[in-house]
Design brief:
- It is built from four helices and no strands.
- By secondary structure, the chain is mainly α.
- It has one domain.
- The two termini are about 35 Å apart.
- InterPro entries: DUF6524.
- Keywords: Membrane, Transmembrane, Transmembrane helix.
Length: about 140
């Protein structure tokens, strides 16, 4: 194997599940999230909460840095417009119904996951097209 990997369905799924885990672990409407843990139990396990904050913060940094460097400003804007328009289209066609605040929050979180996942997928494609890995480039966003 020459070290080049094809972005198949499993790779796309992994690049979507990573931001989905991070976004929904930070806050979700079920009440079992980092946000609820911090707000509902403010004096419990302070050190562990700080540690989890650092892990989640690094995950957000990792996802956004990788996607932003690959997509650049214009690409990030276009992906955001496409994902938002896709969400709007799905709602307009009644494929997704927004009946409550919870539904709206979930729809916004899934749209954010789609944007973040697109950035991670394009980072792989960008390195294949340009031959330069994202980690080797300087930040020029």
């Amino acid at each position: 194997m020459d070290g080049h990997f094809i972005l198949g369905p499993g790779g796309v799924l992994a690049r979507l599940l990573y931001p989905a885990f991070v976004v929904f672990a930070t806050y979700n409407t079920s009440g079992y999230s980092y946000y609820h843990w911090v707000v509902d139990y403010p004096d419990q396990d302070i050190i562990l909460k700080i540690c989890c904050f650092g892990v989640l913060g690094f995950a957000y940094y990792n996802i956004t840095e990788t996607g932003a460097v690959a997509l650049q400003r214009t690409g990030l804007l276009l992906v955001t417009i496409a994902a938002s328009a896709g969400a709007w289209f799905a709602i307009d066609k009644d494929w997704v119904t927004i009946d409550s605040r919870i539904d709206l929050i979930n729809a916004m979180q899934f749209t954010l996951v789609l944007i973040m996942g697109a950035g991670l997928c394009y980072a792989h494609i960008h390195s294949r097209i340009g031959g330069v890995k994202i980690v080797e480039e300087g930040r020029n966003v």
